[in-house]
């Protein structure tokens, strides 16, 4: 896919990876609707891009908000070609996490993707083209030490992206799944700031596993992957080897992750 002349929606676009992707898409010739729970942030990013972007606020796990984003895109620029389901949350932590926080994690990290696909796939099938880009996490391929909610919801996001690609990949709809490790964003820097047991371990598990990239670095990799219509986008290439080790000897991988968890906990 070439982004020049396309219309994109980027959720979680008010900062971090989403903002960097929105700017990269616009620089590549796309028109972009920037969406974020914080409307001021979305509008600020869109304003920094210029006439090729507009900003909107809202909870992108809400089907009504998704419909409003699509309608705004169509009104301002035309039919949506690319949907970047990037909004994410680190809500919750361990097995004692209450159901309301599980609901937030699953709604934002997974069901927001499902609901966006529900709104867009029928039109894409009629047109014979469309692109769905899901931001999951390396935690969706591996795990997130310290946070059950993040690990489970990101695994589900990867699973939904896989299903989308298998189901619609032969019918003109491209799907990519972005799975970075540490990125210098508020989600990493403050998302695990809580007094719940395991919170500091969850953050350390990411920052000590590999390099913490800048959002612009991730956006560059994303743009290359869109050009190739590559399914799995790994800004940290080492994640692929970690994933291979997990698949080749699951028991050994579990043991290694337990050892890593113990080391992190002993260092707190």
Short synopsis of the structure:
The chain is of the alpha/beta class.
Number of domains: 1
* CATH homologous superfamily descriptor: NAD(P)-binding Rossmann-like Domain
How many helices? The count is 10
Portion in helices: 40-55%
Give a description of the structure.
With 268 residues, this protein is of the alpha/beta class. It has one domain (7-237): 3-Layer(aba) Sandwich (Rossmann fold), CATH 3.40.50. Helices cover 53% and strands 12% of the residues. The chain contains ten helices and seven strands. A seven-stranded parallel β-sheet has the order 3-2-1-4-5-6-7, sandwiched between helices. Helix 1 packs across helix 8 (215-228) and helix 9 (238-248) packs across helix 10 (250-266). The protein is globular, with a radius of gyration of 18 Å. The termini are far apart. Keywords: Oxidoreductase. It comes from Rhodococcoides trifolii.
Write the layout of secondary structure elements.
Blueprint: E1 7-10, H1 16-27, E2 31-36, H2 39-49, E3 53-57, H3 63-76, E4 82-85, H4 99-127, E5 130-135, H5 148-168, E6 173-178, H6 186-189, H7 199-207, H8 215-228, E7 232-233, H9 238-248, H10 250-266
Parallel strand pairs: 1-2, 1-4, 2-3, 4-5, 5-6, 6-7
Helix pairs in contact: 1-2, 1-8, 3-4, 4-5, 9-10
GO molecular function: oxidoreductase activity
Family: Belongs to the short-chain dehydrogenases/reductases (SDR) family.
InterPro entries: NAD(P)-bd_dom_sf, Sc_DH/Rdtase_CS, SDR_fam
């Amino acid at each position: 896919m070439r982004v020049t002349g396309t219309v994109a929606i980027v959720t979680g676009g008010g900062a971090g990876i989403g903002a960097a992707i929105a700017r990269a898409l616009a620089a590549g010739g796309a028109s972009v609707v920037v969406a974020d729970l914080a409307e001021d942030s979305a509008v600020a990013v869109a304003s920094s891009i210029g006439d090729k972007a507009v900003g909107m606020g809202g909870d992108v796990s809400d089907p009504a908000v998704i419909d409003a984003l699509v309608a705004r895109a169509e009104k301002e620029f035309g039919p949506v070609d690319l949907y970047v389901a990037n909004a994410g949350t680190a809500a919750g932590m361990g097995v004692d996490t209450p159901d309301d926080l599980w609901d937030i994690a699953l709604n934002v990290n997974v069901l927001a993707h499902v609901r966006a696909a529900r709104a867009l796939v029928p039109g894409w099938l009629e047109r014979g083209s469309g692109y769905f880009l899901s931001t999951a996490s390396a935690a969706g391929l591996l795990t997130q030490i310290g946070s059950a909610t993040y690990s489970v919801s990101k695994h589900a996001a990867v699973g939904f992206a896989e299903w989308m690609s298998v189901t619609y990949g032969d019918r003109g709809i491209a799907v990519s799944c972005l799975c970075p490790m540490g990125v210098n964003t508020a989600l990493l820097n403050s998302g695990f700031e809580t007094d719940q047991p395991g919170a500091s371990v969850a953050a350390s598990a990411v920052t000590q596993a590999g390099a913490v990239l800048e959002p612009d670095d991730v956006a560059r990799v994303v743009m290359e992957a869109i050009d190739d219509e590559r399914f799995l986008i790994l800004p940290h290439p080492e994640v692929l080897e970690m994933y291979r080790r997990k698949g080749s000897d699951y028991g050994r991988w579990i043991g290694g992750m337990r050892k890593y968890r113990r080391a992190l906990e002993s260092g707190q």
